[in-house]
Amino acid sequence: MQPPIVIVCGPTASGKSALAMRIAEECGGVIINADSRQLYRPLRILTARPTEAEMQRVPHALYGMLEGDAPCSAGAWLQLARMEIDWARARGATPVVAGGTGLYLKALMEGIADIPATPPQTRAAARADWEAMGSRAFHARLAEIDPLLASRLTPGDTQRNLRGYEVWMATGKPLSWWQAQGKAAPYGRNDFEIVSVMPERAELYARCNARFDAMLAAGALAEVKTVLESGLAPEAPVMNIIGVPELSAHLRGEHSLEEAAARARQATRNYAKRQLTWFRHQLPP
User: Do residues 109 and 34 touch, judged by C-beta distance below 8 A?
Assistant: First the structure.
């Protein structure tokens, strides 16, 4: 009998990574990342990625594997995660999937629609339209093409707006149409053991604030400075990770460090609130 797939999920700063570590140590498991931010190599501190010492204690997979400008959809993550899960189970090790990116976990448990890949020239054309139109006009155009998808996005969500637009360009059908098509779950419901970490909101917010302050003390500002100096485009995925826009504004002289930190703490709390809502409504019973 194969080991179960343990999912340790919850909002940011909830303590799920520490819990996943304890579970993996107890059962001889492999921790597999399900946090979209921790996929990116340049921001170990600001994404609270496991330290080298932690990764030596227990095998980890899918951490720090992407450069800052590499996109990663839920479908792309699912392909990578399935390889790691199947490899671990084949060796008798328990896969411990840890993270708070709800779309990734939903794809793992329920499957995902088989959306055709978009060719590079289509992606380039979509980005050219976005640059020519600006984010608000581009989002308005997407609302004409795919009103259901656009209703779920803000103009500032560049990656997902572009994704919806380029899928329509490549296939002639809205992304929401593709998402509504039949999908096969990669594993059975009984394969999963779900452990959710859901602190009370006041405690969670306090943890969010304390963790960002700890990130600053550990060198997050220098980390962001290095990313900015690397020459990545403003729309690169890593540039939108919480803390990067706020600390970047400080480095440009637009805010004091304390103002930037206050904005980042607020953004973190807002993100944690959205995650709490998602898990309470979307997590299978």
Answer: no
What is the DSSP secondary-structure string of 237-268?
GGGGSTTHHHHHHHHTTSS-HHHHHHHHHHHH
**C-alpha to C-alpha distances, 197 to 8, 19, 32, 43, 272, nearest whole angstrom:** 7, 9, 17, 24, 12
| Residues 191 and 205 reside in one and the same domain | no
Proportion of the chain above pLDDT 90, given as a percent: 80
Position 144, amino acid: E
Q: Please name the residues in contact with 79: beta carbons below 8 A apart, sequence gap of 6 or more.
A: none
Measure the CA–CA gap between 6 and 24, rounded to whole angstroms. Answer: 9
pTM, entire model: 0.83
Q: Give the Cα separation of 77 and 108 in Å (integer).
A: 9
Contacts of 53 (CB under 8 A, 6+ apart): none
The values of phi and psi at residue 244, to 5°, are: -70, -50
Chain segment 196-244, per-residue pLDDT in tens:
999 999 999 999 999 999 999 999 999 999 999 999 988 889 999 999 9
- CA atoms of 260 and 255, how far apart (whole Å): 6
**Domain holding 158: CATH number?**
1.10.20.140
> 134 is in which domain, residue-wise?
120-179
C-beta of residue 71 within 8 angstroms of C-beta of residue 157:
no
